[in-house]
Write a structure and sequence with these properties.
heterodimer; A: alpha/beta; Rossmann fold; 2 domains; eight-stranded mixed sheet; about 50% helix; binds S-adenosylmethionine
Chain lengths: ~400, ~120
């Protein structure tokens, strides 16, 4: 069940609001677990044989699976309920956020007066269309809408909504992805001691702060193109006593020196960009990394690593969750993208890190020693959570 | 200070996908889910009330509003909501169950055959 947020920007919820959020989490659990299992079974039992007969071969990729399923009632019910559950996520947190927006914005102003980290906004920055023209994840107002001067409420909406969305799986600070991967890297590379690192598309810094926690000696920088989420991220980081330098910037043209970072990291970021921007971001990451520096990106595993049905299952968001670039990204070969961006081919790596929050630290440390492979549940919110990431050494 | 009268947008930009043959089915699904949600909210409130009455012997409206489930309460409530999902969406899952409509038809036909023999 959704926990509560573990920082000072936590807002009080009324009894019914809490129950509404709990219902949506339960509904998502039902859809993503019971109905998803039914859908898999119905596909293999009823849809696959018929589609194979019609096509003359088994549906070979995610698109063919999707087309074969479209007229199937189980798929329609699953999808309609999942879209509704997604809309209800935002609906269930809107009222408490509205009621507390003034208070949240005051926390941002307060943080700015006695900051250890920093917040640098660029009001002149032109927003890319993938942010300004969409409501990603069906979140009304997206990352960037401002409902008054200095407003951070879209950040609050995202923070409170993602707790409901992830059904509490990411832990109270929602930092499980960053924590699991930073811990994985520390275990596998004892020599890794970043002095300076950068997070791209950091949103609320959920997965920035765990790096600061895992590598306390590192100076941590984080950028995003949207001001409201950065304001919230800054106040949140300060309230948790983690100094981070947040800047409003487009990741396709970074305002940092060449060779200036030991680690460049992102999570759930690249897939929200059009392919031409992904290419630019990777080239920029290469430029700002020092020789020998590490670049890492957490994403869902690419389609090429998965059977057609599993690819389809993960591509669902691209078709129905306002993530139009997701599928194009997941159809790419990450190794080829990195090579194009100038990384040496032999520097490429990809791993699956088990979730610290799900398995606990002991099981995690054991599993990391043994290594894990991409499976059908990687990046899915099913039984057993693990996170895929890829990267390269410059 | 900013944010006194902040109103967040209600609508998502973009067209809502239609999954069923008739658009009214998609609308009905949304209404049913919203109703299911509100019923669950009501149930949680009654549940909280019962537990408080049980604990205190008196109903205190303030205490009800402040009610915080213990981890044990929460586990029971989550299990109850899961059961509720199963009941509410029984037909959704039955549609996908091993006895798909084809099997059901075969069973019906065989019964009819038996009866007419
Ligand atoms: C799904 S969120 C990332 C989530 C976050 N990294 C985490 O781990 O929780 C995507 C973010 O990318 C930002 N974004 C989109 N395009 C961008 C660009 N070209 N440059 C920088 N940030 C961008 C959006 O504002 C949004 O905050």
């Amino acid at each position: 069940m959704p926990g509560e947020l573990a920082h000072d920007l936590r807002i009080p919820r009324r009894l019914d609001e809490q129950a509404r959020q709990d219902f949506v989490s339960s509904l998502r659990g039902f859809v993503l677990h019971d109905m998803a299992n039914d859908l898999r079974e119905v596909y293999h039992r009823d849809v696959l044989p018929e589609a194979t007969r019609r096509l003359g071969h088994e549906p070979a990729d995610s698109g063919e699976v999707h087309r074969a399923l479209k007229s199937n009632l189980t798929f329609q019910l699953y999808s309609a309920m999942r879209v509704n559950a997604q809309e209800m996520v935002w609906d269930s947190v809107r009222a408490p956020v509205e009621r507390n927006a003034a208070w949240i914005n005051a926390r941002v102003e307060e943080a700015a007066r006695q900051a250890q980290g920093s917040l640098t906004l660029d009001p002149e920055l032109e927003l890319p269309r993938n942010v300004s023209a969409l409501d990603v994840h069906l979140m009304p107002g997206n990352y960037d809408s401002e409902h008054g001067p200095g407003d951070a409420s879209q950040g609050a909406l995202y923070d409170n909504g993602t707790v409901v969305f992830f059904m509490g799986l990411l832990g109270p600070d929602q930092g499980d992805i960053g924590r699991s991967i930073a811990r994985f890297m520390r275990a596998r590379h004892p020599d890794l001691q970043p002095q300076k690192m950068l997070d791209l598309g950091c949103t609320l810094g959920h997965n920035t702060l765990p790096w600061a926690e895992t590598f306390p000696e590192a100076e941590v920088h984080a950028i995003d193109v949207s001001a409201p989420v950065l304001r919230y991220a800054f106040a949140r980081a300060e309230s948790m006593g983690r100094p981070v330098h947040f800047r409003q910037m487009n990741a396709t043209s970074l305002d940092y020196e060449d060779n200036s970072f030991d680690v460049v990291w992102s999570s759930m970021f690249l897939h929200e960009l059009p392919l031409k921007d992904i290419r630019k971001v990777l080239r920029e990451a290469h430029r700002v990394l020092r020789p020998g520096g590490l670049m890492l990106h957490m994403e869902l595993p690419p389609n090429k690593a998965l059977p057609a049905y599993d690819g389809f299952y993960l591509d669902w968001d691209s078709w129905y969750n306002s993530e139009p670039f997701y599928k194009t990204f997941r159809d790419q070969d990450p190794a080829a993208l990195l090579a194009e961006a100038g990384f040496p081919a032999d520097g490429f790596f990809e791993h699956v890190a088990p979730s610290v929050n799900w398995y606990g630290e002991d099981t995690f440390d054991q599993a990391v020693g043994e290594g894990a492979a991409v499976g059908k549940d990687t990046g899915r919110l099913a039984e057993g959570v693990s996170w895929y990431f890829f990267g390269a050494r410059k | 200070m900013s944010g006194e009268d902040i109103q967040l947008p209600r609508q998502t930009r973009g067209r809502r996908p239609q999954f069923f043959e008739n658009p009214e089915s998609d609308v009905l699904m949304s209404v049913v889910l919203a109703m299911a949600g509100e019923l669950s909210v009501l149930y949680d409130r009654v549940d909280a009330m019962q537990r408080l009455l049980d604990r205190q012997g008196v109903l205190d409206a303030d205490a009800l509003e402040q009610f915080q489930p213990t981890p044990e309460d929460e586990a029971e409530r989550a299990a109850r909501r899961q059961e509720y999902m199963q009941r509410l969406f029984r037909v959704v899952r039955a549609e996908a169950a091993v006895f798909s409509s084809k099997d059901a038809e075969e069973v019906l036909e065989s019964v009819e055959r038996e009866l007419s023999e």
